[in-house]
Give the backbone structure.
Amino acid sequence: MVGEAATPTVVTSDLEYTTLRAVRWRLLPFLFLLYVVAWIDRSNIGFAALQMNQDLRLSPAAYGFGAGVLALGYALCEVPSTLVLYRVGARRWIARIMITWGILSAATMFVRGPSSLYALRFLLGVAEAGFFPGMIFYLSSWFPSAERARTLSWFLAAIPLSSVVGGPSAGALLGLDGHLGLRGWQWLFLAEGLPAIVLGIVVLLYLPDRPGDARWLSPEASRWLETRLAREQAECRARHRLSLRNALAHPAVWQLGMIYFAGSAATYSMAFWVPQMLRELSGLSDIMIGVVAALPYLAGTVATLLVGSHSDKTGERCLHTSACYVVGAVGIIATALAKSPTFAIFALTIAAVGLFGRNAPFWAMPSAFLAGDAAAGGIALINTLGALGGFSGPYIIGVLKGVTGSVSGGFVVVALLLLVAAWIVARLRRTSALAVWHPVLPAAEMS
C-alpha cells in the first residue's frame, strides 16, 4: 500500500520537473533575445547622442524630451495594446509590435531636427506599447506562481545585459562615421533596428500562444500545465474577485504603478544620460565609453538573477523590492556627487544592482492578486505609469542640466523618487491583496 501511494507522487514530481524544464529551455532564451533587442532599440539614443546632439543642434532639454517622449506614446497605447494581445494571442500581436518598432527604430536615422526626432520617438513608443506587459502576462500563462520571480529574473536580466551588449556595439557602430556618407549615429539606428523586424517574423513561426499549442510538449505535459495554471487562476479569482474594471481602479495597482514610475525614471535616466556624463568626466572615445558604460550593467545582471531566486525561496516580494530601491537611490546620489570616471562607474554599479535587482520580485506581485484580463489590464496600467516615469526622469535631468550645466541636480531628484517608492512598497506588505502569496504546493497536490 505504501508503494502504491508513493508512486503517483514520484510520477507527478517527474512530470512537473520535465515539463517546466522543457518550457524554460524553449521559451526563455527566445523571449530573452526579444527583450534584449527591444531594450537596445529603446535606449540606443543615449549613445547616438554623443554625435547626434551636435548634428541636430539639440539643447539638453530638447534631447531629454526627445529621448523620453517615446514613453508618452508608450503610455498612451499601453493598456489597449495589451488587451488586444490578450484577445488575439501573444504570437500575432508580439510579431506586429516588433516589426513596426523595428521599422520606426531604423527610420530614426533620417531625422533632421528636433521635430522629426520627437515624432519618430513618439511613434516608436506607440509601436512598442504592450510589448513588456504582454511578455509579463505571457510568462504568467506558462509558469506557476511559485516559479514566477525566478522565471522573471531570467527574462528581466535582458535589461542590464542588453546594455552590456549594446554599449560596446554602439561604440563600434559610431565608429563607422562617414562610411557610405552616413554618420555613425545613423549607422547605429539602422543596424540596431533591423533585428527587430527579422525576429518579429520569427515570432510568427516559433512562439505558441498556450501550452496546448506547444508541439514540443507531450499531451500529458501540456494537460498537466494547463490544469495547474487554470487552478491557480481560479483560486486567484475566487480569493480576490477582481474584474478588469476593478483591477484598473484597485489601490494596490495604482501604488505599484507609482513605485514603478520612480524605478523607470531612474533606469531611463541612466540609459539616456550616463554616456554623456562619462564623456564629460573622462574625455574617452565613443568606443571606450560604450565599453566602460557596460560595466555596471554586468553587476545589474547578476543582481537580477540572485534577488529573483531569493525572492522565490522566501516567498517575499515587498521587502526585496524596497531594499533594492534604497540601494538604487544610494547609487544614484553617489553618481550625482561623482567627480571622476572611476568613482562614477563605482556609483553606477551600486545603482544598477538596486535598479535591476528590484525587477523580478516587483513583477511577481501583480499576478498574486490579478488573473485573466484583469492581470493583462492591471499589468499594462502599472507599466503605463512606469512609462511616464521613463519620460519624466530624463526630461527633468535635461531641463536642470540646461539651467545648472550639470546632471547632478536631476539625479538627486530621481534618487528622492526612489526613496519615496521604497517607503510605499514596504507599506504594501500590509495590503491584503499582496499579503497572501501562492504557496509552493507539495507534489501530490499538483496532480
User: Anything to note?
Assistant: Residues 167 and 290 are 4 Å apart (CA to CA). The domain at 12-436 is CATH 1.20.1250.20 (Growth Hormone; Chain: A;).
